[in-house]
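Exercise 7. Given the encoded structure of a 309-residue chain, write a plausible sequence.
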């Protein structure tokens, strides 16, 4: 991890995301760039018929944001971190962030997720979803919960995902998880969740009579496929830090994070179309909404950002 891009939103407290960015930068000897994509609707409306005036007002507004970023950047520099800053004017924040990623080519994007009205829960808002869907680099969705002294990372893999039958995404999840765990004192866990057909959903009389054997066979297949991926990383389902659990992924992951004091959950993102929220959201949004720890979303190595610079 050499370059970290931190998305700054001055409408919310920036202390936690900056603290975590500083920790990662120090542990990995990485450089940090603070970025803010800004837009002010009032300026656009007030200068609707004055193009030259609008440009001056926009530039002044961006300079004001840059001066705020400079203060934060100087604070990181005081900690011995090579830090820089940048701001741009863009009506669509997600597109502005994606273009910045394409220009800067970071190894990680850090983006804060804000809590909403239900105490202890977070909101995976439209901007968060667009970033998760479009970013070609891993995105660390940052919560307000501090990291523990021993950082615990949980890599959630799924060797049976229909869009990743070759295991490219799982390998990338494990690779990125190992990157986080190499910085300092850490613990890497691996989790795979799977479901089997409920008894009442099986209509083949032969399968019904041998339901338990079917369940055992399915579980063995999941373990075999997991081991095929894990072997490349020197891991196995027999290891104490690797768990294969039966049940609904979103609820299991949430409980697993609490039970094992997880700091970062690593998950895969496979979105490709306007209907992706049905796929991406079913597990990811539920996890982001319900866990207090951070979540890093990883893409396949061949993923291409749908936007251009």
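Solution.
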């Amino acid at each position: 991890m050499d370059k970290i891009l931190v998305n700054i939103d001055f409408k919310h407290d920036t202390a936690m995301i900056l603290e975590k960015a500083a920790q990662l930068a120090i542990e990995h000897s990485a450089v940090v760039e603070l970025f803010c994509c800004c837009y002010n609707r009032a300026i656009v409306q007030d200068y609707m018929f004055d193009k030259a005036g609008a440009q001056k007002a926009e530039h002044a507004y961006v300079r004001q944001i840059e001066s705020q970023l400079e203060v934060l950047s100087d604070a990181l520099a005081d900690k011995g971190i090579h830090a820089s800053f940048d701001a741009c004017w863009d009506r669509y924040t997600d597109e502005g962030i994606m273009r910045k990623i394409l220009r800067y080519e970071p190894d990680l994007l850090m983006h804060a997720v804000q809590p909403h009205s239900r105490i202890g829960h977070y909101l995976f808002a439209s901007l968060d979803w667009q970033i998760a869907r479009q970013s070609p680099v891993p995105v660390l969705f940052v919560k307000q919960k501090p990291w523990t002294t021993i950082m615990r990372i949980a890599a959630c893999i799924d060797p049976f995902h229909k869009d990743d039958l070759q295991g490219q995404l799982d390998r990338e999840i494990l690779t990125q998880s190992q990157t986080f765990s190499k910085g300092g004192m850490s613990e890497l866990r691996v989790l795979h969740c799977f479901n089997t057909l409920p008894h009442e959903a099986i209509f083949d009389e032969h399968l019904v009579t041998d339901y338990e054997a079917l369940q055992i066979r399915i579980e063995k297949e999941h373990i075999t496929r997991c081991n095929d991926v894990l072997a490349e990383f020197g891991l196995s389902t027999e290891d104490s830090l690797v768990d294969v659990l039966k049940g609904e992924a979103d609820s299991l992951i949430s409980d697993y994070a609490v039970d094992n004091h997880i700091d970062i959950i690593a998950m895969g993102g496979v979105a490709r179309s306007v209907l992706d929220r049905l796929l991406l959201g079913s597990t990811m949004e539920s996890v982001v909404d319900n866990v207090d720890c951070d979540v890093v979303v990883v893409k396949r190595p061949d993923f291409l950002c749908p936007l251009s610079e």
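Remark. The chain has two domains: 1-112, 145-309. Students should compare their own answers with the one above.
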